[in-house]
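re: the backbone from monday

yeah here it is again, tokenized this time
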């Protein structure tokens, strides 16, 4: 990973730490950061010595989701469908790790980044953390599989509210709904995550691996199916008349005329 990377992987004994490091943009992800994250996960897939993973963020937020300036602006030589496929396969590497992943969330967890956190094993939050799925307001749909996980956790009513209206959840609400398992003071977030990782790492590795496998088998098929649907629908939306109209209307400073196609 290059010295100017904005996603860092550090390994300290049996514990690995992934750090989002784009604090000026509240750790918003673009295509380059995605590639760095997927590279880190690929390395962890091969590390049999790692027993637990912490995923954290530098600065005021864990991640504010997708860099809005990059939505609909593909700067790679890949098609939109190819980028989407890379994203799905890249983040599904989380499921191929033997080590559980603990996400330590402060500030914002928004959109695709929030969904990625939902694909992990454990989420803890700092006091004041906030959670949001604003994709519909940007003319796209959630597309990272997290909505399927969230519905399993909280039921369809709250998920529909968050997806369709962009409703924000506070850390306390997230705890009440089981989205996070702990809410801690902000200055204790890293230390609590480390303590949890050390407890996991101290257990027999094969026991943790098999326990994680049992838990994953309870829900994984539905999440995979949801991600396949999202891949198809998001690719269609990127080429839809309404998406094009939204971009033009915003550039021209006028109300859009949506036709549902």
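seq for it, each position gets an aa:
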């Amino acid at each position: 990973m290059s010295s100017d990377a904005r996603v860092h992987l550090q390994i300290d004994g049996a514990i690995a730490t992934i750090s989002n490091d784009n604090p000026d943009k509240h750790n918003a992800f673009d295509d380059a950061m995605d590639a760095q994250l997927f590279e880190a996960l690929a390395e962890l897939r091969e590390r049999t010595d790692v027993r637990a993973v912490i995923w954290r963020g530098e600065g005021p937020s864990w991640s504010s989701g997708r860099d809005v300036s990059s939505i609909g602006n593909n700067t790679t030589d890949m098609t939109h469908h190819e980028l989407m496929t890379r994203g799905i396969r890249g983040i599904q590497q989380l499921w191929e790790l033997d080590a559980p992943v603990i996400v330590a969330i402060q500030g914002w967890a928004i959109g695709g980044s929030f969904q990625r956190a939902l694909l992990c094993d454990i989420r803890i939050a700092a006091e004041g953390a906030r959670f949001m799925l604003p994709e519909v307001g940007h003319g796209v749909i959630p597309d990272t599989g997290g909505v399927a996980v969230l519905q399993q956790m909280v039921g369809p009513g709250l998920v529909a509210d968050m997806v369709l209206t962009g409703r924000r959840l506070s850390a306390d609400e997230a705890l009440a709904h089981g989205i996070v398992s702990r809410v801690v003071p902000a200055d204790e977030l890293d230390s609590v995550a480390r303590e949890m990782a050390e407890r996991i790492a101290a257990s027999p590795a094969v026991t943790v691996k098999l326990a994680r496998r049992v838990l994953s088998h309870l829900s994984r098929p539905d999440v995979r199916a949801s991600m396949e649907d999202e891949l198809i629908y998001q690719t269609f939306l990127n080429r839809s008349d309404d998406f094009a109209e939204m971009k033009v209307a915003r550039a021209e400073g006028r109300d859009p005329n949506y036709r549902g196609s």
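The radius of gyration is 18 Å. The longest helix spans residues 220-238.
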